[in-house]
Amino acid sequence: MRKGNIITRLSIAALTLTAPAAIAQDIHFSQFDMQPLVVNPAFTGMFYGKVRANAIYRNQWKSVTVPYVTYGASVDLPIKSTDGGYLAGGLQLYKDQAGDGNLSNFTGLGSIAYHKLFGGGLDNYSGSDLAIGLQFGYAQKSIDLSKLYFGDEFVNGSFVKGTTAEYKYGMGNNVNYALVNAGLCFSHAFNESFSFILGVGANNLNQPTDAILKKKNSDVGLAMRYTGTLGIVWNVSDKMSLRPAVLFQTQASAVEMIFGNEFHYNIGEQYGDVNFTPAIFVGGWMRGGDAAMLTAGIEIKNMRIGVGYDYNTSSLNNASNGNGGFEIAIRYVSPYSVSHTRRSIPCPRF
């Protein structure tokens, strides 16, 4: 293969690995409210209890040779009460892997958020919460070139591994970089029946270079990603609540919006803290121009267990044979003890 063709192929690979919608920066969770620290660092500590732990698993596009698999896990908790507010901290990890070349992305983020409370009591949802959050972390993107075949390895009718010129032109197996993210959110409860939360965030504030294709004096950095969220809890009766939400993201020229509603129904009498009433839920969601999604699950004994599936509606539907993504997620919140000082959480949507 001619040198020019090799460079062209490497350029295409580099664009694929560094695109604004790259997997590491564009995590597609149907149950995005089950990974709140991915959505906005200001959501750190915004729950009713002592400690919150989340885990999620996603398997997408089984029709390809090696499907996309994504794992996410987080833990967060309030760490210090202040006059009229509290400080919270958390840790978020996620990883995904796909393809014959094991294209892999790992990210670890530490979060800190300060919440200022306005009005309301300590034992019910009321008043307002204004929060600011920061995240600092590490990311690694890698690919195993030894598992891939390239045109210049095709010699005398068969592939001869190790003859490729990819390394010569500077394509390595991995790249490591730091990440800085920030976010703001405001939540408010008008009364016991209606509350909302509004958040904005910015990721990749330091715009790190994440290209596996190494270039001298490269000024190409990972574009900042901006996020907006709106969530509502509307208790239409003692048993039923509507919980619509919108997630909007934009990065460089890529734009994504997820919107829909969760129907939440209490199946038992309240016991203990008001956040842990046994319930079932079903949600319907759309990812604009990409997928239709269904979520469902149960909340019982301080745990929320949910499953999700999205059906591909984009132009890639033929390539995926209609296969979408399956998810399973779990959340556990450690409840307050009888003597524990409690915090007001105006809107528990995220």
Per-chain topology:
Blueprint (H helix, E strand, L loop, with lengths): L2 H16 L17 H4 L11 E10 L7 E15 L2 E14 L4 E16 L8 E16 L11 E2 L2 E2 L14 E16 L4 E10 L21 E11 L4 E12 L2 E13 L12 E9 L3 E10 L2 E10 L12 E10 L16
Antiparallel strand pairs: 1-2, 1-16, 2-3, 3-4, 4-5, 5-8, 6-7, 8-9, 9-10, 10-11, 11-12, 12-13, 13-14, 14-15, 15-16
Rg, alpha carbons: 22 Å
Helix content: under 10%
Question: How many angstroms separate the termini?
Answer: 53 Å
Q: How many domain regions? A: 1
The oligomeric state of the chains shown is single chain
The largest pleated sheet is described as:
14 strands, antiparallel, barrel
Mean pLDDT: 80
The CATH topology is: Porin
Keywords: Signal
Protein name: Type IX secretion system membrane protein PorP/SprF
Pfam families: PorP_SprF
Signal peptide: 1-24
What does this structure look like?
- With 350 residues, the protein is mainly β.
- It has a single domain (32-149, 162-334), classed as monomeric porin ompg (Porin).
- The chain is built from two helices and 16 strands.
- It has helices at residues 3-18, 36-39, and strands spanning 51-60, 68-82, 85-98, 103-118, 127-142, 154-155, 158-159, 174-189, 194-203, 225-235, 240-251, 254-266, 279-287, 291-300, 303-312, 325-334.
- The strands form two sheets. A 14-stranded antiparallel barrel has the order 1-2-3-4-5-8-9-10-11-12-13-14-15-16. Strands 6-7 form a two-stranded antiparallel ribbon.
